[in-house]
Design brief:
The chain is mostly helical. It is built from 13 helices and 3 strands, in the order H-H-H-H-H-H-E-E-E-H-H-H-H-H-H-H. The chain has a 3-stranded mixed β-sheet with strand order 1-3-2, with helices on both faces. A hairpin with a 2-residue loop joins strand 2 and strand 3. It is elongated. The relative contact order is 0.10.
């Protein structure tokens, strides 16, 4: 761990491991967060509140749900919340497993380049990491995507064995970070079209569309299943169809119909 020295001019560098010119470089908010939560370092707290106010608000109010950021006691509540020995071990495990994230930066950049090529007008979000006490895996909002690294410590991580079934633990691995980021970000841009009488199957197909696209963006077959297969079948029938065309068209009924062999 890199410790900040006393004095306002000293700061913990986020050290995002990104290269100049990258479309996406993960902001290591988690490093500053962990410094405050393990040492109570005041300069780290200042960085959280002044350089990352939106991330801090989202973490405290939406993920941890421990209060409002304008509560005079919120800093001590935040610190005390993580003094539990289980959460301290969680912070330590994140620091060890994610000391380096070059592989994730590389895959994020290649995936977002493909997305930008497929949909030229799409906005590329700011991506940052955090430690969220085993709550939400991915947080999306305000043109930002937050990755809770504590939810990606491996299928056999001892804390997961107590709380999650095997099927869920198999998704809580490092290789799922980028696919999950893309799924939740695309769902924020192409939300479920509620209110038009969609059947459950059509809703599942909508998720299948997003997953099929993400498979293409990461260039590996991450997401499988019936609905992803239906989308693949649909796109084979529409060889000129693009990712933008698929996402922007109301075609869930047509795709769902393929399940009946139509």
């Amino acid at each position: 761990m890199v410790l900040a020295l006393c004095g306002c001019e000293w700061k913990l560098s986020p050290n995002n491991n990104g290269k100049e010119g990258d479309a996406v470089a993960v902001e290591r908010y988690d490093r500053i967060e962990s410094l405050y939560l393990t040492t109570g370092d005041f300069s780290a707290l200042q960085q959280l509140n002044t350089e990352y106010p939106m991330q801090t608000r989202a973490l405290i109010e939406d993920v941890l749900k421990i209060g409002r950021v304008n509560d005079p006691e919120i800093n001590s509540k935040f610190l005390q919340f993580f003094q539990d020995i289980t959460l301290q071990s969680l912070i330590n495990e994140v620091e060890q497993q994610y000391a380096n994230m070059d592989d994730i930066n590389k895959e994020l950049n290649s995936s977002f380049r493909r997305l930008k090529k497929a949909i030229p007008g799409i906005d590329i979000p700011e991506v940052y990491t955090q430690i969220g006490a085993l709550d939400q895996s991915i947080v999306v909002g305000n043109d930002m995507v937050g990755i809770s690294l504590d939810k990606y410590l491996g299928a056999d991580y001892h804390l997961y064995l107590k709380y999650y079934p095997k099927s869920q633990r198999e998704q809580m691995v490092r290789s799922m970070i980028v696919p999950d980021c893309l799924v939740f970000y695309l769902l924020s841009l192409y939300p479920m079209p509620h209110g038009n009488g969609m059947s459950q199957m059509e809703c599942d197909v909508h998720i299948g569309k997003i997953m099929w696209v993400v498979n293409r963006l990461v260039d590996r077959h991450v997401f499988k299943g019936e609905y992803v297969s239906l989308v693949a079948k649909y796109m084979k029938r529409h060889k000129n169809g693009t990712i933008a065309w698929l996402l922007n068209n109301d075609n869930c009924k047509d795709i769902a119909a393929l399940a009946d062999g139509k």
